[in-house]
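User: I'm putting together notes for a lab meeting next week and I want to include a structural view of one of the chains we've been expressing. I don't have a solved structure, so I'd like a prediction I can at least talk through. The sequence is below, exactly as it appears in our construct file.
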Amino acid sequence: MTGIDLEAFLDTHGQLAAAVAGLSEEQVKWKPSPGSWSVQEVVSHLVDHSIVISFRIRDVLAGTTAQLPAFNQDAWVSGQHSNQGRISDILDAFHTILEYNSLLIGRLSGEELGKTGVNFKGETVSVKDIIHSFTRHVQHHLGQIERVKQEAKGALGAV
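Assistant: Thanks for the context. Below is the predicted structure for the 159-residue chain, given as structure tokens.
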């Protein structure tokens, strides 16, 4: 396999787990405002994103000519009541999907990683691009989690 940092891809779970470690249920579900996401909703969104990129990768590998799907992230988060339930279950789902995808990624040749499809923006993207984009996306949301935690510190006390 060439050009994929599988370790960085897999490490996203550990980074998420560390970001939420020690937070109370109240802290993970606290929202800075009604229209913003809680820490738990951010993690739930990343599970949703994992599901979507799983489909996109497999669709590209299958040689689809259809445009790769977008998804309405806010509607997915609110529609599935993401702030209910337990953060541990959400992290477990993220980890399971991540591991399953890593098994596929580890089997791909350089040629397969270079296969392309057209994303929802009309841009040509490769399997490799999709994987890199996912890892960067998680990093973006880790920053969001830290910002929410800092705001929660002022609203709820020590975080």
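A couple of points you could mention at the meeting. DSSP finds seven helices and two strands in the chain. Residues 127-156 form the longest helix (30 residues).

User: Perfect, that's what I needed.
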